[in-house]
Amino acid sequence: MTAYTATVTVRLKHGVLDPEAETTKRSLERLGFDLEALRSTDRYEIDLEAESAGDAADEVEEMAERLLANPTIHDYDIDVAERE
Questions:
Q1: Is 5 within 8 Å of 33 (Cβ atoms)?
Q2: What CATH number did the domain enclosing 6 receive?
Q3: DSSP character for 13?
């Protein structure tokens, strides 16, 4: 078994209201920053052991589908790196 760290970044799909990001965007604009758009994300770092990076990615994919993200309203990215 090899040790991996998987990073899952979850964000709302385009078109889904993101009140937290809208509030932050307005505040930044009041501070003088010119923004086209702002989106909030959740980031999870998961340490796990697996036979291969592919197996680790498959397991984390299942975690994302079952709990970390709602596929109806969220997009997510998974990155898997071997730990030293």
A1: no
A2: 3.30.1280.10
A3: P
Closest residue by Cα to residue 68 from 47, 49, 46, 52: 46
Q: Which two tokens stand for residue 61?
A: 């994919």
Answering whether pTM is above 0.85, one says: yes
Q: How many domains does the chain have?
A: 1
Per-residue pLDDT of 16-26, as tens digits, reads 999 999 999 99
Least Cα distance to 57 among 22, 29, 82, 25 occurs for 82
**What tokens were used for 68?**
């970390």
CA dihedral over 12, 13, 16, 19, signed as positive or negative: positive
- 76 strand-pairing partners: 10
Segments forming the whole domain that contains residue 19: 2-82
- Tell me the residue length of the chain: 84
% of the chain exceeding 70 in pLDDT: 100
